[in-house]
Specification:
homotetramer, 266 residues, alpha+beta, Glutamine Phosphoribosylpyrophosphate, subunit 1, domain 1, 7-stranded antiparallel β-sheet, 31% strand
């Protein structure tokens, strides 16, 4: 089912989110509490923004808890905006190219959830990736395909509209050719300036999404599940939400993919 | 550019082809002599047939010479029909799913060569994979796509015709959207009963193909380049050939993909 | 804490023990029930005997459930005597050389348990490995060291005596320089002819050991925990036992490492 | 035989040394020119210093040219002092723990060369590692052992003396128990403040060592072989030299391990 954690704010070491907290992402790779899969050991990944326009990316298939490279990296690298993810596969092979976050140009994207019965319409999904972006398709996950389709639909110009359209198209495909649950989508993505997050599902089981501003740190963690069990001030994001985080600010708008339209168009 | 070696005949240890000869496949992974890339260290793979209808498959991204698992495996496993391959990437990432041989059901397939400018028409190529086989598309190589398209075109019923058609379609795509050299195709594949090999190119530079019957072993090696430098009785297969090996027998027929037809059809 | 499964008897596919049973070894890598660590995802390994005098060996650091090479291998390889193991590290790094089973010549060895406070006397332990065998020390585990010491103490000539001596030496070291619990030793090893297993601990918490003869299969499984939850005829081996399995036969003798002697000798 | 490259000076992206130059370290992993092994594909590693007292470390077994993680990392991370290495094994297994640079506390160390016949006296070498540092012994290379012995001999207090002593001890062991060539030692190491390099051999074949100050960059590259073929101002360091680099300064002193003393002491 995957777990992820993102951060935006004042520069911190990646480990301050990924490994140091009591229920850090690495801890969640072994015993997550708010999803079906306690173990998320089918790979992990990071994308972090620094001086360059494009983010750094580090992905591997080892369980997150046992990779000394990861441990070293997150203890050295500082960033003011980063994404991190531990994977529990919903079917596709364990390989680096199937690990999140995915990166294209300055964008990075990670996903917790699934698109029901994806194997049955995988080809149709991939056909929705525009020509210019097709060479970026490196793995076989529904998540990467969704990201590439959204990019082609104008993630640059209007992230919310592009994601609504992409999600609608995938959900429609799942309704027509796949299986329930059709769409579970709790994801985060960034262009290096803002951090975006979505919590949405076609049913009432949208995977959880929380966030918390830390004054001491001067930054906000946006996560699948709270990084500390004791802390009461983690805010839960309601389902059907599109969040935009920039600096200290955040806005939440309704996220409403229009499936009927998309179904009709197919 | 890759190197490969296949075998059909009386059961032998895989190592008798893959590592023991003076210029074995593993030796070729470090210093091949009959192709551009002396080093073929972007992964390796095996497919071997035994009691089961489907072949075993073992692929990894390490250079072949440094994998102790491979060494152990080929020293233990015996087979009367197997394929082995060491890879030099022509662009796609080094990952297990991009290593040859590929297997689908009882078929296995490996390739040395390339399809010119593949990245520019990769999507069109993947669209030619039929629905039923699309879930088998695990990597991003032109080789795997070619194999899946050929399977869909009836590799079971008529291997030569299916491969001619598939090669023609890919060559036509390359001519329309890609770059020269359009098609370099020296490949081997099997259904567990017969071993097939093709040597073909759209120009005059078809990668080499040799074979040699060994009476002592009671089997035939079919290879990119001879496994011993001293042996004079390696037979070179001419370009534009489709070979069928079964038991001790072999037949060679002309291999003539019809590109004009395929170009017209696009 | 690790889980393992061994087999001796009529030739079967490795998968008949490793993946097919309801609570197979691979199932145990995700949710073992009779030990502290439900998850055993710090690598896995196989050693199997065939026509050769030395066994085949295959080890990797991926969780057992996600390796397609493993899946393919165990579906193809048949053996009448094999060892398989999934690892939960007690401290040492996740690397192929730290995965069990270890092999030296015709011997193979795997271990579930630990030697308390090993890091504090690791050097002394390694110094007990005889010169001739030192080049075989490839990793950094207590298990591999114990195996090499036992080999040097005459595992060939008298397996029980050699293991008693080796266990006593390590337990004495742990008592002198390490920490409680000093010795937890449920292990299996083989020379390709017989399968041996030990269940022993310096306290009353010896990791579990079971076995079961299958008439249909014509062989015996020797395991950390039963491979099917429904089957009532799994026999538990009592603590302080040394088992020898050959063909259909089995003998159990007391296993009594003499720590006082060993402590005195240090 | 390995190749390596180090840097000290004004902060630069790691890629400015490791991948961007015409004959960069990654280029050398495929076609080095000043050593026996053109190919250095048995793993690679980096150690880099930043804000923390201890360096970051990243090592993997893939050939350097094919790892997307490495490519991304070196394009993002900046450092004013770093070590990088591509490995050609002289016998020991390809595994992360056998890749250079090794790190202990704030020290990092990498080596090009070998210690003749090491397998025959490996145990004696490891016994020279002091108790406190023994837990740091993770792999099986002669290089890591040499580093740990030097640390125990006071690398902190007097790097040159400690390395002379350590080299002498290993060379003596090789003369007594190993094989010629006894010691080939071109290495680099750092405590995060200064960069040290040695060029030494027991015969007249000390692996090459060059350095070059770049005014534009404000830093110095210290390397196995020059990073650009065209540049005339690479300075070759003579054999039997101990170099200390700090900021823009460099000093070269004679490096004279006293083997007769060490041989007598054994």
């Amino acid at each position: 089912m995957c777990r992820w954690a993102a951060y935006i704010g004042r520069e911190i070491y990646l480990e301050d989110i990924i490994s140091r907290p009591g229920h850090s992402l690495i801890h969640q790779s072994q015993c997550a509490t708010k999803c079906h899969t306690a173990i998320n050991a089918d790979g992990f990944g990071l994308a972090w923004y620094g001086d360059r326009e494009t983010p750094g990316q580090y992905r591997d298939v080892l369980p997150a808890w046992s990779d000394p490279n990861l441990k070293s990296l997150i203890g050295q690298v500082k960033s003011s905006l980063f994404l991190s993810h531990v994977r529990a596969s919903t079917g596709t092979a364990t390989s680096r190219n199937n690990c999140h976050p995915f990166t294209v140009g300055r964008w990075s994207f990670m996903h917790n959830g699934q698109i029901g019965g994806y194997d049955a319409f995988r080809r149709d999904a991939e056909m929705m990736i525009c020509d210019a972006l097709y060479p970026q398709r490196k793995g076989a996950t529904d998540s990467e395909a969704l990201f590439l389709v959204a990019l082609g639909l104008g993630l640059d110009a209007d992230p919310k509209a592009a994601m609504e359209q992409a999600a609608a198209q995938f959900e429609a495909l799942s309704k027509a050719r796949g299986a329930a649950p059709h769409m579970r989508l709790t994801c985060a993505f960034s262009d290096g300036k803002r951090l975006y997050a979505i919590r949405y599902a076609s049913d009432d089981q949208a995977p959880t999404l929380f966030h918390r501003w830390s004054s001491s740190r001067g930054g906000r963690a946006v996560v699948s599940e709270p990084l500390e069990t004791g802390q009461a001030d983690w805010c839960s994001v309601p389902a059907n939400s599109f969040c935009t985080f920039e600096g200290k600010d955040m806005t939440i708008e309704p996220f409403t993919p229009s499936c009927e339209e998309a179904l009709a168009a197919q």
